[in-house]
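Bug #77: duplicate submission created two jobs. Keeping one. Sequence:
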Amino acid sequence: MERTQNPTRMEILKSREKLLWYVFIASMAGLLLRLFMINVDADVKILLIIHTVVCVLTASGIVIIRKQQNLEKTKGKRS
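Kept job's structure:
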């Protein structure tokens, strides 16, 4: 049976959070791989910076989505 209903806001937030977790784990793995490389040249330093920025941005995105989920839960309880 196909789902004809539009997803709720909470379902959208959960799927976005799941996607951000995947991105965070992948970028953290890349960051750790780069950190344990023996010879660190300029290219590796640039990749370290990029992986660090991606980790910070995705972590902040996860925190924001969690706050939105909490707001949705409290808004649902008030109604």
